[in-house]
Fold this sequence. Notes:
mainly alpha
Amino acid sequence: MPAAPASDLTAHLGYWLRYVSNHVSQAFARKVERHGVTVAEWVLLRQLLDEEAIAPSRLADRMGMTRGAISKLADRLIAKSLLVRAADPEDGRAQTLSLTHAGRALVPGLAALADANDAEFFDHLTPEDRATLLRILRGIVEKRGLKFLPVD
């Protein structure tokens, strides 16, 4: 009995999404690594930019990561003097994370790298096509109930 025909890889939207995503992500990773951070560290730093201090558990929920993963990221960023861990003033048993002055100063430059990376890959699209692509991707996120921030 002959095997059922197999669809070509390139016939799948997921293939093309992954293809583009990998290239966009890898290019961005190289850019931020030149500034001493990983993409996951960048995401955590950016999450903290708009916060004075936040509980690691709340950050884990927001980022869709385990508390252990947040703790490891925080430890690395503390070692780089970009983050501080302190006792929660409202609950001495709990801790908070916040950016150091150096961390707060670094984030806008990394955000500019993210903007440049987007421009590198997507500036050839018309504003209408960019808006359509963004709307479609956000629609998929909403429809599928996707919650976790992309950190890899």
